[in-house]
Design a protein that fits this description.
The chain has 11 helices and 6 strands. It is an alpha/beta fold and about 220 residues long. Helix 10 links the parallel strand 5 and strand 6. The longest helix is centred in the middle third of the chain and has 16 residues. The protein is globular, with a radius of gyration of 17 Å.
Length: about 220
């Protein structure tokens, strides 16, 4: 199969944001007496919507979060991103060398995607090619964000390849009929073992895979 378009997830694939988000969320929860660990947050919230994460906390710990919790989380995480956020190692080379169209499709709000890509100096690659679940009110593992991105980019499902780092994103890609490559890190490698998809452990490895899977 030769692909004509690459659809990247953002958090954990383009930018190294998952650990930062998790640390802010757990710190805020702990301040309210909700003792959720960083590991639990990464395992349960990676690739999920913030609403899912907050509902999970309230249900599991039987405690209502303050009405302003989401707004405060956004403010604190955006501040941390502006200081500490880095691009995934090697992603600049991958994007500079791609010879076919590509875009980003994320569960995060558009403002967050733009801010994080700007902070990591990746934004110039994605101007006019940013697609958010908040725009269509549908979140992974539903496939609609990938279907939306493919349609907006002008390609059929079979023309597109998804790059994802979360089980939720992989489920969304599969549900939509897309092929997907899993981007592996320390937090997801055990879960990826049963997914029966190609995987890579670095951007250089991803670039090598793409050389044989894109239509020149």
């Amino acid at each position: 199969m030769k692909y004509k378009c690459i659809i990247f997830d953002c958090d954990g694939v383009l930018v190294d944001s998952e650990a930062i988000s998790s640390s802010v969320l757990t710190e805020m929860a702990n301040e309210l007496g909700i003792k959720i660990s960083h590991v639990e947050a990464l395992e349960n919230f990676t690739g999920k919507s913030l609403k899912y994460s907050l509902d999970y906390i309230e249900a599991k710990y039987s405690k209502s979060l303050p009405d302003n919790f989401e707004d405060e989380f956004r403010k604190k995480s955006f501040h941390k991103f502006s200081i500490y956020l880095k691009p995934i190692n090697g992603v600049h080379d991958v994007l500079n060398n791609l010879t076919i169209p590509f875009c980003v499709a994320s569960s995060g709000p558009v403002e967050k995607i733009i801010n994080n890509l700007t902070t990591t100096k990746l934004i110039h690659h994605f101007e006019g090619k940013i697609f958010s679940s908040y725009e269509i009110k549908s979140w992974k593992p539903e496939p609609n964000i990938f279907l939306h991105a493919a349609k907006k980019m002008g390609f059929e499902i079979n023309d597109c390849l998804i790059i994802e780092d979360s089980i939720t994103g992989i489920q969304a890609a599969k549900c939509g009929g897309f092929d997907v490559i899993g981007f592996v890190n320390d937090n997801n490698k055990e879960r990826f073992k049963n997914e029966n998809i190609p995987i890579c452990y670095s951007m250089s490895e991803l670039e090598n895979l793409l050389k044989y899977q894109i239509k020149q």
